[in-house]
Structures are given as C-alpha cells and as structure tokens.
C-alpha cells in the first residue's frame, strides 16, 4: 500500500515538473504539450453545456491532450469572456459562448473587453430565434398580431435579454403599438408563460422547437435572416419589412494574438470537432439547431458587422 | 403509463441504486454523529454530485435526506441529545426508555416510524404532485409573486423567537441575493467590478458557509462538551427488550396521525421538520388515553415524533416540484442541485421531462426501502459512532466543505465561503435565524423577478389584480397568516412577561 502511494507521488511529481519545464519553451511544433482549458459561458447541464463538452471530447481525441471544461456562466457570457481576455494567447485557453457575448454585450454593459480583443475561431451551431405565441393565442401571423395589439391597446412581450428588449422597442416605434416588455429568466420560462397565455408573445432562441403542437406554441415570425428549418412556412422579420435580423451562433473564441502556426493547428482541430458525428448529431437531432460551421474569417466578419450594427443601435 | 415505467426503469440501474445507498448511509451517519446533521451533509454533498447523472445526483441527495431521518434519533434516544434538531421531541420518551433498559425497542420503534412516515408521504407526493402541476400551469408571474409572498410571511413568522430578528435575517439574505447582474438591464449590482461576482454569490458557497461551516465554527469556538454515552446504555442496544409485531400494532395509529401532520406541514413552505416533530408529539399526547405516561418512556411518543419529522421529507417536494418553491432549507439546497443539472423544478418539469420526474419518484421509493433495510444493521453500529469525539469529526467536515466549494465553483468561491461562515457564526451568536437568511436568499430573486414581471403586466393598474383571482386569494392568505402570526407573537410576548 505504501509502495503504491510512493509511486503515485513520484509520478505526480514528475508530471508537475515536466509540465512546468515544458510549457515556457513550448513552440508551435510541440503544441499542444499540456492540457487545454475550454471556458464555457453557460452553467453545467443544459444543451449549450453538453455541446461544449462534446466539442471538448472531440478536440481531446484529435489533439491527444486533455481538454478541461470550466463552466463560467453569468451575464450572458460576460464572465467567461472577461476571464478569456485575461488568459495568455498561447492556444491553451479557448472559450465557448454565443456570439452576442462579443458583438452585442460590450455595447450594452460596461465590459472590460471589446469585440476586437479576441481571435474568433469557428461557429458550431446556428440558433433558431423566433417570436412565439401560445398555441391558443387569438392570432397566428404577424399581421394578425399587430391587429390584435391595436385592438387590445398593446402586447406583452417576454424578453430574453437586453438585445431582445431593444427589438421590442423598435417594434413598438415602427408599428406605433404599445409593447410591455417583461424580462424573463431563461427561454423555458418564456415558453411556459406564453403557453399559459400569461404573455402574448415571447422570444425564443430555439427552445420552442420541442413545443410546436396544439397545446404548445406557434411561431409568429422568424428572427433569423433565413426562415427556420422547423417552421419553413413562417416569414422572417426581414420579410416583414425590418432592416435587421438576429441570426446568432454558438461559437469558439480565443484571446487575440495566438502565434500563427498554433492558430492553424487549433482551427483545423476545431473544424474537425465541430463537424464530428457526435457534435452534429446532438445539434441537429436533439437541439434541432443546424450544425453550421463558419470558418474563422467569415465569423470574424460577421462579428465585426454585427458589432457595428449593435453599437449604432444601442447608442441611439 | 409508458413514461412512468420508463422513468422507473431509468432509476433502477446499479449505479443509481448504489448512489442512493451511499446517500442513505451518509445521511444516517451524519445525522447520528454529534454536531453535524444531515442538512450539513446535503449542503456539502451538492458540489460532488456535479459529475453524476441528474437521477443519480438527486437520488444521492434524497438518500442523504432520508438517511438523516433515522440517524438523528440514535443520539436522541441513547444520549438525550438530538443528533439533528428535528429529533428533539424524540428525546422526551426515547431517553427514558433507554434509562429503563429499553434502548433496543426505542431505536427500532424510531426506525420503523421514520420509514413508514417517510414512505407514506412519498406516496402522497407521487399522487398529488402531477395533478397539482397542471393547476400550477395556470400560475403566471402575478400568482407566483403572491405564492412566494405567502411563503415569506410564514417563514419570517415561524422561525426563531423574535419576528424582527427573523425578518432582519431574511432581508440580509435578500440583500445578498441582489449581488450580480440585473436581468432586465444587464446592469451590475454590488459586484465591485469583480467578474466572478457577476453571476451572483453561488448558492453552494452561501449554503455551505452559513449552514455547515458556520455551525462548525461555533462548535470550535465553544467546543461544546457533549455528553458521553455510558457503557450500560450502549449494551442495552444489543441485549435489551426486542421490538415486536405487537409493538408495531400499538404505534401504528400514532404513526398514521403523525404522518398526516408531517405531510401537511411539509407541503406548506417554510415550517420544517422540527416543528412537525413537536406537533406530532403533542397531537399523540393529546389523543392518548394515558397522557401522563408521555415523557416517561412511552413508545408512542418516540413513534409520534419520528413519523412526523420524517414525513416532512417527502412532502417537501410537493411545492418544490409543482411550483418550484422550496419548502425548507434542505429543499432549497436540493433546488440548487436541480439547477446545477440544468433542471428547473416547477410545472414545466412535468410536461418537459415526465420521465425524469418518475425516475425521481422511483429513486425516493428506493431510498425508503434502503433506509428500512440498512437501518436494521446501522442503528446498532451508530451507537458506537456517536462516541467519536468532535476533535476527529470537525477537521474532516471542514476539509469536505472547502474542497466541495472549490470543485463546484472556484477558488474565489472558497474565500466567499469563509466569509459566509463567519457570517453564519455571528448569526448563531446573536440569535439571528440562518434559516430565514437562506430562504430569503433563495426566494428573494424569485420574488423580485415575479413581482417585477407582474408590475409590467399590470401596467401600473391596481385593478389588474381583479383579473387574477388566484393571485388575490394568495395575497389574502398572506394577510391572514400575517395577522394571526402577529397575534400569536403578542400572546407569546404577554405569556413570557407573566413568567418573568
């Protein structure tokens, strides 16, 4: 027994020693020579976290180093991004969250980071944003909803975040109706409240897809730039005459300035993991989120564009 | 029906059963060991469930909760010192029985009463929770705000002997819960620019700090000299008069009465098992034809207290599962565990994850069975455990507390934990109820959210309330409870004045 303990201690000591000796001198050829940390902007459990954990597992297999998941939930990813920005840009710390953490929140909250503090690596899935109402609501289309709002003197709207609250303000202004925005924690609660008709409409980032039935909810308008896969007959918000849409992604980012050779290796591994069978399966089958894997350049452009849009909108 | 079967079969895996068993044993041990109750065990265990499947995790925690119901009786009966506060009423007749050499009979009576009470209340939960959750779908933000108001009023009034101190503690809890990011505006509140605080103070750090470590600190400072179990009593555990079928028939009516009381109390948020134990005991004494025998080693007294405090455990899940409102501190901590696993207790849980809910029910019944079986062996064993001095128990518990928080959260939260422990220590010193503190901490944000939402929906029109009759009923109820509690307190105040 004591022998085993001593051996274990020795192995542990050697490991620690190698880890400390190797890491400073690690070059791109050796990367990754120590475990990689994946910071996740969501709490443990739930779909987004599972997706991140599957990504970690796939990366681990490909890179041959452990990928340690650390949940840093809070503030829609702000906590995670704040910690990510402080991490060294060596390819050993990567973050997983939704793009709004980087391209919207810095203009709404006073964050310690800005959108160009990060290298954007790839997306994993596209969310399915929609405006939903309870199945028993007396309106089913955009026009009917507006008519109902004019007749009833307004609408109650379950809002998911400051971004969706801003949308409600625009809606009220553009259509000349009253919208009472009720902030609700969590997409599921919004679904429950519209199902029980406590709220007229609510924002869903995709949870509604499991409730598209007679007792559940119906989609009034798609908020993504393209129509939603699970509600192909419902027009998008752009089709209804709005000049912006709300497509969003679950995605990966790293602190800015990773050495180019390391970055290339990392990008290749992430792309492979994001398109792996496990990840694709969870996204497409269980979460019903299209497994859209945008490459780094496209994603970076998307975030720059969206940042400009949000900066304008929130400084109004 | 298929979902029920599927849910039950999900629960009956080897690993789940083993985790429930482990939970039951830990609960029994912690409740039996002096100084640490099963509540402390649950708080400490939460972070370690992080890496289990949801069913295993909840089964483990529920197992601890159930194991605690029988462990607490051991030291109450053998040493006149309740292992956990809810077993206080079990000392009244349990210890006299020990003195008469009937420790063996008393322990077994406590064991069977606990398990019977607990199982029956689980059955009530299983039959009542699903229909209740359908009603609960009718509860929008205004109704939720009203229900939470009722819960807050009951809790503030019932706990501790000073209503003002109870309210102060509850508001301190509320205040702590304000830390973090405001949901509607995303503005930071009381975070001092520390990113780790943006998500608020974690329930694990707050719970373990105030409940577990705070109590340990108090014991370190005051190094309670605990009564020791003497040799004679310890022997009567093995050799004394056995518990017979006849005894069980004698106590069965008492068990059923206490179970009804305990289940009712468990279903109302905020009262808790200690009160149930006392009420069950008083009711049994009042119903008895020979009340003078109570307090002198009446077996019905042990049964009454134990069945009542144990039946609270299952019934506590009624408000938790149907409304998402924790009935007492243990339920609040278990609510935290649900959230860690991405599950939100409440009406939508039944429609979304019926299978999981039935697994949960199955796990509870497994826990009851295991509690029954293991108790046969462990209760005698714990007669020895309760002789372990605090010098060995305290360091182990402290290490478990700190590593638990680091596992669940981070090193930062370990510092928070220490701060909360100091707060918990002073609350105990100054007689501020830590129970209202934690409940305030848990219910505060729920109330704020629901109330804010209701205000927006009402659009500032007080007459809007008339469109929500259910909310009206609950608000009236809160008012009635408040008035009657104030009256009771005034009467109690007069009584104590006379005594002086």
UniProtKB/TrEMBL annotation, chain A:
Residues 1-28 form the signal peptide. The keyword Signal applies. Keywords: Signal. Pfam families: TctC (PF03401). It comes from the Bacteria. InterPro entries: BUG, Bug_dom1. The keyword Signal applies. Belongs to the UPF0065 (bug) family. PANTHER family: BLR1237 PROTEIN (PTHR42928:SF5), TRICARBOXYLATE-BINDING PROTEIN (PTHR42928). This is Tripartite tricarboxylate transporter substrate binding protein.
């Amino acid at each position: 027994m004591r022998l085993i303990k001593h051996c274990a201690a020795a192995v542990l000591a050697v490991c620690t020693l190698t880890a400390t000796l190797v890491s400073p001198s690690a070059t791109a050829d050796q990367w990754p020579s120590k475990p990689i940390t994946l910071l996740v902007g969501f709490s443990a459990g739930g779909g987004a976290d599972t997706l991140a954990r599957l990504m970690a597992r796939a990366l681990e297999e490909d890179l041959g180093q452990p990928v340690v998941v650390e949940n840093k939930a809070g503030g829609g990813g702000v906590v995670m991004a704040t910690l990510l920005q402080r991490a060294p840009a060596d390819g050993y710390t990567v973050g997983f969250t939704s793009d709004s953490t980087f391209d919207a929140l810095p203009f709404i909250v006073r964050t310690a980071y800005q959108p160009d503090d990060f290298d954007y690596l790839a997306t994993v899935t596209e969310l399915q944003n929609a405006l939903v109402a309870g199945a028993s609501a007396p309106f089913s289309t955009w026009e009917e909803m507006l008519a109902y709002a004019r007749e009833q003197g307004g609408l109650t709207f379950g809002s998911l975040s400051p971004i969706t609250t801003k949308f409600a303000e625009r809606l009220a202004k553009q259509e000349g109706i009253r919208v009472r925005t009720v902030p609700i924690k969590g997409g599921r609660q919004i679904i429950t409240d519209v199902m029980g008709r406590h709220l007229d409409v609510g924002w869903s980032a995709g949870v509604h897809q499991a409730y598209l039935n007679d007792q559940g909810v119906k989609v009034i308008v798609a908020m993504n730039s393209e129509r939603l896969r699970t509600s192909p007959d419902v027009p998008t918000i752009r089709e209804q005459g709005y000049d912006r849409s709300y497509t969003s992604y679950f995605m990966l980012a790293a602190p800015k300035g990773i050495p180019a050779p390391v970055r290339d290796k990392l990008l290749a591994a992430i792309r492979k993991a994001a398109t792996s069978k496990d990840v694709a399966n969870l996204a497409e089958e269980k979460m019903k989120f299209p497994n859209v894997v945008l490459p780094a350049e496209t994603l970076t452009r998307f975030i720059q564009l969206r940042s400009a849009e949000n900066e304008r909108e929130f400084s109004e | 029906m298929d979902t029920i079967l599927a849910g039950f079969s999900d629960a009956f895996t080897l690993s789940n059963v083993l985790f429930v068993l482990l939970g039951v044993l830990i609960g029994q041990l912690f409740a039996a060991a002096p100084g640490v109750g099963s509540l402390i065990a649950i708080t400490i265990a939460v972070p370690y469930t992080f890496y289990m499947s949801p069913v295993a995790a909840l089964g483990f925690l529920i197992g601890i909760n159930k194991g605690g119901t029988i462990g607490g009786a051991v030291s109450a009966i053998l040493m006149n010192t309740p292992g956990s506060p809810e077993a206080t009423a079990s000392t009244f007749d349990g210890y006299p029985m020990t003195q008469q050499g009937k420790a063996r009979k008393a322990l077994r009576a406590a064991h069977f009463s606990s398990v019977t009470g607990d199982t029956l209340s689980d059955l009530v939960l299983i039959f009542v929770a699903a229909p209740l959750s359908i009603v609960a779908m009718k509860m929008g933000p205004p109704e939720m705000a009203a229900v939470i108001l009722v819960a807050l009023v009951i809790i503030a009034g019932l706990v501790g002997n000073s209503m003002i101190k109870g309210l102060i503690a509850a508001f301190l809890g509320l205040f702590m819960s304000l830390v973090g990011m405001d949901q509607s505006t995303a503005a930071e509140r009381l975070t001092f620019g520390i990113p780790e605080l943006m998500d608020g103070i974690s329930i694990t750090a707050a719970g373990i700090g105030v409940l577990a470590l705070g109590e340990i600190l108090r014991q370190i400072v005051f190094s309670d000299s605990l009564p020791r179990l003497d040799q004679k009593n310890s022997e009567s555990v093995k050799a004394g008069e056995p518990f017979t079928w006849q005894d069980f028939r004698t106590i069965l009516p008492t068990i059923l009465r206490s179970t009804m009381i305990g289940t009712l109390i468990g279903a109302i948020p905020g009262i808790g098992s200690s009160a149930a134990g006392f009420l069950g005991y008083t009711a049994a004494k009042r119903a008895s034809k020979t009340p003078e025998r109570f307090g002198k080693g009446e077996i019905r007294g042990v049964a009454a207290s134990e069945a009542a405090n144990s039946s609270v455990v299952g019934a506590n899940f009624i408000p938790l599962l149907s409304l998402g409102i924790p009935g007492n501190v243990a339920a609040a901590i278990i609510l935290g565990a649900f959230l860690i696993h991405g599950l939100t207790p409440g009406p939508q849980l039944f429609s979304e994850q019926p299978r999981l809910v039935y697994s949960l029910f199955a796990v509870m019944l497994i826990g009851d069975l295991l509690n029954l079986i293991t108790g046969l062996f462990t209760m005698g064993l714990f007669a020895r455990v309760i002789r372990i001095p605090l010098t060995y128990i305290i360091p182990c518990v402290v290490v478990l507390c700190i590593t638990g928080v680091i596992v669940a959260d981070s090193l930062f939260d370990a510092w928070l934990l220490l701060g909360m422990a100091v707060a918990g220590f002073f609350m105990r010193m100054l007689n501020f109820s830590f129970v209202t503190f934690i409940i305030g901490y848990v219910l505060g944000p729920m109330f704020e959210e629901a109330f804010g939402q209701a205000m927006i929906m009402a659009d500032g029109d007080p007459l809007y309330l008339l469109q929500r009759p259910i909310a009206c009923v609950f608000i009236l109820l809160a008012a009635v409870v408040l008035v009657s509690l104030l009256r009771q307190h005034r009467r109690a105040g007069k009584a104590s004045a006379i005594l002086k």
